[in-house]
Amino acid sequence: MFGEYLRLAFKTLRTNRLRSVLTVLSITIGVTSVILLTSLAQSGLATLVRGVEEVGGSRFIMLWPDQPKKAIGKSANYLKGLTYHDAEVLRTLPDVERATVLHQSGKVSVRRPGLSERQTDMIGTDADFMKAFVFELASGRNLTSADLADRRRVALVGDDLAAKLFPGEEAVGKELVLKDERYRIVGRLAYSSKSGMNFGFDWNDLAVVPLSVPSPAGKVSMITLTSLDPSRNTLLLDRVNAILLHRHNGLDDFRFLDFGGMLKGFYAVFFGMIVVVGLIAGMSLVIGGVGIMNIMLVAVAERRREIGLRKAVGAPQATIMRQFLVEAVVLSLFGAVIGAAVGIGLAQLAASVGPMINKGWVGIVSQPAVAMAVLSSAGIGLFFGWYPAKQAAKLDPILCLRSE
């Protein structure tokens, strides 16, 4: 019986091809919008999340100097900024796994002795830098506390910088000149594929030196903390805030960013975007549903004789109603299938093009969006096809035959 419904439905749709195509097109646009926009939103979220996870995820907390917002009158009595000693105190907190510091000199001149200069990022830091920012050594050793204490002119070099200065050679043990001062390379960092988060330096083209060399007074551009438990980040930040205010004579000349809270914000924005996408695409589907209702009402008016003949030979109302419902659902599902194919294709295209614009882009085709769009389309067909089907089922067969 259902096969017969389908056969009659396809026959009717072929008879009115232009109307059917226009109705299918409206559903196609709605389904394509759902899949494409949801996939783009999900890809953006995945890209942001990956960038955060690459540097410790929700356990990562960043602090940096800033203009004071409160107690600004006390600024004359205090030398503003964060210091290495601040980090040493924060390192002792029970919820902190590790703390590290960064003194960023920005782009500086670098060269191999006797060769022309290049530019690279110079960072003064401590022995926890590699663990905090998830670096690995390709060769050599890490910085040590003795390097900081003795102000040794030693350096770690990024993989790209090593390749530029010492092509085809091992950089460890060689010398390089940073800002006209000689340093001995003690370690070469392994290539890092991180690209989502930007901390102001190139992950692979950088020179890492002991903090005490570029900043003898211990002034730092950033302190990063890695917490033991992200669920306790809020409590930890309260303690950090209280300690730093006490050390800075009540001057709030610092700011911090909780990556765990930032991730929650990302998810909130993502779900908000999903709601907006659903509303926009839902409007397209509703417009398509109105088109289905319109074409089905026209079909009922044009096929009154057919309805009358079928009722005259004993077809019950339920059979007539099911026939028109099947036609409405077939229309919407045609649009859904075509829209799903187009939406998936465009989402895959975006996933391929995205890394060319942002190499850290994570391309995703949202499978839940595909399923939701197709199921919603079937529901649209049933909902908007019900009224015309009901009208067809209620027609009087004698009046239908007389109308011809």
Give a brief rundown of this model:
With 404 residues, the protein is α+β, with helices and mostly antiparallel strands.
Write the layout of secondary structure elements.
Blueprint: H1 2-15, H2 17-53, E1 60-65, E2 82-83, H3 84-91, E3 96-111, E4 118-125, H4 129-132, E5 137-140, H5 145-149, E6 154-157, H6 159-165, E7 175-178, E8 181-189, E9 206-210, E10 219-220, E11 222-227, H7 233-247, E12 254-258, H8 259-302, H9 304-312, H10 317-357, H11 367-394, H12 397-402
Parallel strand pairs: 4-9, 6-8
Antiparallel strand pairs: 1-11, 1-12, 2-10, 3-4, 3-7, 3-11, 5-8, 6-9, 7-8
Helix pairs in contact: 1-10, 2-8, 2-10, 2-11, 8-10, 8-11, 10-11
Keywords:
six-stranded mixed beta barrel; alpha+beta; two-stranded antiparallel sheet; 12 strands
Q: Percentage of helical residues?
A: 40-55%
Contiguous low-pLDDT stretches (5 residues minimum) are none
Helical run tally: 12
Question: What shape does the CA trace take?
Answer: elongated
Biggest sheet character: 6 strands, mixed, barrel
Strand content: 15-25%
What is the residue-mean pLDDT, rounded to a whole number?
82
What multimeric state do the chains show? Answer: single chain
- The string of secondary-structure elements, in order, is HHEEHEEHEHEHEEEEEHEHHHHH
Separation, N- and C-terminal Cα atoms: 28 Å
Radius of gyration: 33 Å
Based on helices, strands and strand pairing, what is the structural class? Answer: alpha+beta
Give the total of beta strands. Answer: 12
Q: How many separate domains?
A: 2
Strand line-up of the largest beta sheet: 3-4-9-6-8-7
